Amino acid sequence: SSPLRKSIIISYHHRCSLCGKLPSGTSLLIKNTRKMGRCTESLAIIVSISGVISSALYTYVYFVGQRATFFNEIQTHYASTEIMGSFDLLEDLMHTVGSDKYPEEFVRLKTLARKQEIGDLLAEEKPTATPTPRELELQSLGQRLDIARRRIFYYLVKLSSLEKLGYVPTEMLREFPGRTRAMHALRLLQPLVDASRTTYGLPMEEHLQVLESIRSIFNITISEQQGASSCFGGKCRDEL
Fold this sequence. Notes:
Elements: H1 2-19, H2 24-78, H3 81-97, H4 102-122, H5 133-164, H6 170-200, H7 205-217, H8 222-225, E1 231-232, E2 235-236
Antiparallel strand pairs: 1-2
Helix pairs in contact: 2-5, 2-6, 3-4, 3-5, 4-5, 4-6, 5-6, 5-7, 6-7
């Protein structure tokens, strides 16, 4: 009789499970398990969404921090002794010889410096006359002027690249170095680029593209660029 009783009980539970009619304790356990499953799924979704939000927030904070870092670097670079000295040197040349002769005199001094460099290289093959102290001074000045031009130009390259890549937005660049400083740099560099292209027969496309990019960033027209400057030594009266 005992095996028969077990068989009846098993058959009963099997029919109950098929019909969805289980004893109250078993039914309650299933309901609680289902509720726990739904809670677990909801918790997993919440955790997943929180992870996405946290990741996005971290990325935003990191990106903003990087912008601040680059912006600070732009300010520090502009205030460096090398950049300030470069502005001083080019401005001194412009004010000494006048705006009209400024690009011509720059090219003349730069050419003297280049000839001296080539002459030094060929000195062993073809002895040349020893330059006078005055000529040496002019050659040294030509070298320093060209270095000054390069330093200011590559500062503008940095501004253009950071803005193009999205590391520093246009609004921040218009805050610093600002429109007036950018215009002053263009007034110093554009005549030198144009004169060098004419004298040496070089296209200098990269230089022209960078200068055009700076005009676009700071919304500077050609006519404004050709006007009188209110800056000296890289410092502008309306931005001090």
